[in-house]
Structures are given as C-alpha cells and as structure tokens.
Amino acid sequence: MVYISSWDEFAERSIQLFRADPHSTRYVMKYKHSDGKLVLKVTDNRECLKFKTDQAQDAKKMEKLNNIFFTLMVRGPDADIEASGKEQAETQPTKKGRGRKQ
C-alpha cells in the first residue's frame, strides 16, 4: 500500500480498477481534522490505491471522482464518464406549477 503522489494517476488507476471488477471494488475516504489531511483509498482486495493530501483545492477533485464513481455504479462500468456533468443537468425536466398563479 504505497501512496500515489499524482492525483491524475490515482484517479485514472482507480477508475480502471473499478471497471475491471465493479462488484468487489471499494472506495473509502478518511478526513482527519486535527491534521487537516484527507486520505482516499480504492481497493478490490488484490490491489490497493491510496492518495493523501492536505490541500483544500483537492476537495473539488475528490467531489468529481465521487461523481464519476456514482455514474459508473448507476449506469454500469462501461458508461461514458465524460458526458456526465453539464449534459446531465440539461436533460432534467423543469418543474412547472410551482409558485403563485398570476
């Protein structure tokens, strides 16, 4: 269990690991407030990938990785993860009938 120093490498290898075996892959986040450190771990019981950071800007990257994993879990491991951001928000229907009638 060695920490991966590059976020891009960690994210890419984590996605590959999930796509290879989606039923046994786990994703764990641990935050230690006293140290201000965030540790992410992805494992499938054979390979373990870890990433540690203390940078606040990495929280947005972690949120994006969460969304990618949620997309892969819902749509399947072969889903296109590039089209999951803005297009998904645009396809949601708007609710009508809310508010006061004029």
Automatic annotation (TrEMBL):
Region annotation Disordered: where it falls in the sequence: 81-102
Source taxonomy: Eukaryota, Viridiplantae, Streptophyta, Embryophyta, Tracheophyta
Gene Ontology BP annotations: negative regulation of translational elongation; SRP-dependent cotranslational protein targeting to membrane
Pfam families according to UniProt: SRP9-21
Provenance organism: Papaver somniferum (Opium poppy)
Family: Belongs to the SRP9 family.
Cellular localisation: Cytoplasm
Primary localization class, coarse: cytoplasm
UniProt function note: Component of the signal recognition particle (SRP) complex, a ribonucleoprotein complex that mediates the cotranslational targeting of secretory and membrane proteins to the endoplasmic reticulum (ER). SRP9 together with SRP14 and the Alu portion of the SRP RNA, constitutes the elongation arrest domain of SRP. The complex of SRP9 and SRP14 is required for SRP RNA binding.
MF terms in GO: 7S RNA binding
Cellular compartments per GO CC: cytosol; signal recognition particle, endoplasmic reticulum targeting
Domain SRP9: residue ranges: 4-66
Superkingdom as given in the UniProt entry: Eukaryota
The keyword tRNA processing is assigned to this record: no
Entry keyword set: Cytoplasm, Ribonucleoprotein, RNA-binding, Signal recognition particle
Alphabetical list of InterPro entries matching this protein: Signal_recog_particle_SRP9/14 (IPR009018), SRP9 (IPR008832), SRP9-like (IPR039914), SRP9_dom (IPR039432)
Protein name as it appears in the record: Signal recognition particle 9 kDa protein
